[in-house]
Amino acid sequence: MSKGCLFVISGPSGTGKGTVCKELLANKDNNLFLSVSSTTREKRVGEVDGETYNYVTPEEFKRMIGHGEMLEYAVYSGNYYGTPKKTVEKMLAEGRNVILEIEPQGALKVKGIFPDAVLIFIIPPSMAALKQRLVDRNRETEDQIEKRLAAAKWEMEQAAKYNRIVVNDDLDACVCEIEEILRDNAKKRERVDNLLHEKY
Amino acid sequence: MSKGCLFVISGPSGTGKGTVCKELLANKDNNLFLSVSSTTREKRVGEVDGETYNYVTPEEFKRMIGHGEMLEYAVYSGNYYGTPKKTVEKMLAEGRNVILEIEPQGALKVKGIFPDAVLIFIIPPSMAALKQRLVDRNRETEDQIEKRLAAAKWEMEQAAKYNRIVVNDDLDACVCEIEEILRDNAKKRERVDNLLHEKY
Fold first, then answer.
1. Any idea what DSSP says for residue B49?
2. Residues of B in contact with A128 (CB under 8 A)
3. ipTM of the assembly?
4. Does A188 sit within 8 Å of B165, measured CB to CB?
5. What's the order of all strands across the beta sheet hosting B54-55?
6. What is the pLDDT of residues B111-170, one digit of tens each?
7. Residue A10 reports pLDDT greater than 70
8. Which of A191, A197, A198 should one mutate to test binding to chain B, selecting the residue with the greatest count of B CBs within 10 A?
């Protein structure tokens, strides 16, 4: 069985990478899986350990960070959430394609850990459109939005380091373009696999 | 003026990467330039320093290797030939797109030095076809060809680390596919450039 492929979807805040990921996961033909995150928050009714999350103690989570076992992590309301490297490795070894949605700062680090990963960077159609999206979210002050836009510029200066750049002007078109990248990637990997197993 | 883009064409010996590069350079629409190599061999009649080659002494060449100033180098008939990092940097700064044809071992190193480089890996349609091409060249013993094929397998196991994989089954189709990659890349870089310079 062939190893799975890791796809990382990244891009500045407000480019809609979360929605793009949801759409990609919803299309079963894409054969994509989310890796189960680890968290320090308490298990809620109906949640399943190892399915909803991997529940770990704060000590264990901090130990994993310290040992570089977390691909990325974040803290919300005092609880840690993160993607353990091992979970991703296990899924890839099982032949599953894994998709991760990661902030730009973390995305480039993933390439160092998984050099085979396909990093896709989503850009907005214009800065004005990006600003409008952030304003429409109605979550932040004008000052916070300006900071996000400044960060977006810095992040976009790194765009060429990604494998592919996709513009999210129209959601359907953006998802289609990424699906085309997935198909092309699968086709090429299959070609290489066949070459590696060919008797000549 | 925007910076140029570095394209690296690589692939196992016998995949036809040299021919592909020549075709890409011959099409002026591709706006590609070869970087001038440095060499320790003597200047021949009609050659121009800084155009045909940069002529340097063996001491200078070895000093450049020692200081990591060579992107890649090789020795033929006792003379050194190599690509100085600085030459590539200068051309990119002048807005020129640079193309390099590099053996797989060197190609991945270039990515470490130029993280924005687009690495294109050329694979043969089959191992049998690759073997036939090496046999048809009539340059090597059966033993040497077997070694090349074993090396090709190892190199192809690294294929996913490249930005793009292209099959060289039909030369024209292969060149067309790479030209499509160049165009897509130019288009996306322009989009990012516009975003970075947009007043919003």
1. B
2. 198, 200
3. 0.84
4. yes
5. B54-55, B38-39, B79-84, B70-76
6. 989 999 999 999 999 999 999 999 998 888 999 999 999 999 999 999 999 999 999 999
7. yes
8. A191
* pLDDT at position A47 over 70: yes
> Residue with structure tokens 């044809």?
B101
Q: Which domains does chain A have, with CATH numbers?
A: 1-31+96-200 (3.40.50.300), 36-95 (3.30.63.10)
CA nearest B150 in A: which residue? A196
pLDDT in tens, B44-86: 999 999 888 999 999 999 999 999 999 989 888 889 999 999 9
Task: Read off the tokens for B88.
Answer: 């590539």
Cα A77 from Cα B145, distance rounded (Å): 62
Is there a contact between B33 and B185 (Cβ–Cβ < 8 Å)? Answer: no
Mean pLDDT (chain A) is 93
Scanning every residue of chain B, which has its alpha carbon at the shortest distance from the alpha carbon of A126?
A: B195
| B contact residues 164-193, partner A, Cβ 8 Å cutoff | 165, 167, 188-189, 191-192
Q: Which of A35, A39, A38 is nearest to A6 (CA)?
A: A35
Q: Which tokens in the block code for residue B106?
A: 């060197």
Parallel/antiparallel/unpaired status of strands B32-34 and B6-10:
unpaired
pTM: 0.88
Q: Alpha-carbon distance A37 to A87, whole Å?
A: 8
Residue B3 and residue B93 in contact, taking contact as beta carbons nearer than 8 Å:
yes
Question: CB-based contact (8 Å) between A63 and chain B?
Answer: no
Residues 132-161 of B with CB under 8 A from A: 149, 153, 156-157, 159-161
User: Are A2 and A187 contacting, i.e. CB atoms less than 8 angstroms apart?
Assistant: no
Kindly indicate the confidence band of residue B36, based on its pLDDT and cuts at 50, 70 and 90. confident
Amino acid at A163: N
Cross-chain CB nearest to A200 (options B5, B123, B131): B131
Chain A residue numbers touching B188 (CB-CB < 8 A): 159, 165, 167
